[in-house]
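Here is a typical sample entry:
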Amino acid sequence: MKPLPAPAIAFAAAAVIAAIGFLVWRAVLASRRKETARAVLQSICAVLGAVFLALARATTRLPVLHGSAWNVRDTLVRAGAIATGVVFLVGTVIALLPWALDRLEAGTFVSFIAARHVRAKKSAFLSLISGLSIFAVGLASFSLSGAISVMGGFSADLKRKILGNNAHIVIDTTSQAPWGDYDPTLQHVRAVNGVLGATPVVQGEVMISSTSNLAGVVVHGIDPKTIGDVIDLRKNVEAPVKVADKLAYLEDPNLLRRIPADEVIGIGAGGEEYTKGPELSLPGDDLDPLVVEALNEPPRPGLVVGRELAKTLHVYVGDEVTLVSPLGDLGPMGIMPRTRKYRIAAIFYSGMYEYDATHVYVTIDEAQSYFAMPDKISSIEVKVDNAEYVDRLTPIVATAVGRDNLRVRDWREINKNLFSALKLERIATFLILSIEIIVASFCIVCTLLLMMTEKAKEIAILKALGATDGTILRTFVAEGVLIGGIGTVIGVSTGVALCAGLAWFGLRLDPDVYYIDRLPIEVNPFDYGAIALAAMTICTIATIFPAKQAAKLRPVDGLRYE
């Protein structure tokens, strides 16, 4: 569950307590008016509000599960908190409707007639159509709210992971060839106002092999001292955990010779931790000379790999792997592949399968040595203070670079196709699901037409008393807007409650299938406001035709058969 600020928790608790008090008050009033069914339902909603508070508090004490770990009790508590919260909110909204209609009846003549028509007893068929209109608009608004929130959550989660594992600005050559004399450029970039960090990086593609498997990877040569200023590599390291610096084994490979017995060397699928265990005791005088020589040889350089790559290679912290590059040295038989052995210095989990399965990290000096590019780098990676406004800082960084052979690109330009596709998909989903609201608005048209037929005598009497065509038109438009507004409020509020509950309490997913352990949800007030505005606009447009037909009704036609 995402931690919420204390003021937000206090405000939410106060709002729930106030809603419970309102429901109790309405239940008492309904009981005095002998409306037993309404009093019972409102009392049940108030009890559900209290249960929601208790379950919400209980979720704060639940342990945080990792990986595919799953607990029935925790799931039931979270699901109960979400379900009771949604039902409680819907009950509160429904309990507010009579109060809101009372306020409308105390308003103008048009709002008075419209509110009385909505709450008045009608024929069974007309009551059914009115209820279906509210239900259809509410269901369409709810489905649109849920779909947009889930899509927004996936988009925000993807953006967060991309920005956490990649630089905001990348400085490299168009041909992506290595380039030198980078230190002055690096200092100029770091001096730009708004730049939080910059680090040199060497990149290359190689094969990596272990004793049981092999894979293709992208090697990143990094400066361990400055890489944390640009990307979240240190934060993403899940093994080892006992060291003060998560990249200590990468900076000092000698530490890999004596890994503590309780050090975590890997994480299982269910979140379980694998430790190193005690060292085997070897007799000092009876060792083979070759074994002694192997124990005294210089330590292997360190290598940081992702969780999926470690799973593919079946390796843990301290295990040995080999990097193989096809671009090696010239030998008697032609170009020979360049190979070098490394030891796993850390295992990271970024949340993105592509990075966890194909990206590895070594020190920049080791990468320059391995790829035979002394004093050269592939790029400079930069982090700025506000990634959303990186386009304002990119020209300033380009001016600070001042080299024609280098290009400066921000994360939006690098991932332009991906985020354009996500944005188009979200807009298309909004438009397609808005068709549901259009279909639901047909029920409002039917409701108003049937009401015009059923209330023809009343319309004729109002016109005979002096009501104009405009007054009748506005009355029916207001009635249709009320029906659409009730459905929209119920649908959007239900969607907000469900999505907020899923965002706060979490919906567990199998990370082995989805590569995320929780369903990402984005609770954006602007999205819900746009959905409510679209629903109300469609419902208002749907009322125009039946309202015009009602306004055209002549008094003599309404009273002819009376």
User: Anything to note?
Assistant: The longest helix spans residues 124-165. The chain has 21 helices and 14 strands. The radius of gyration is 33 Å. Residues 1-101 form one domain.
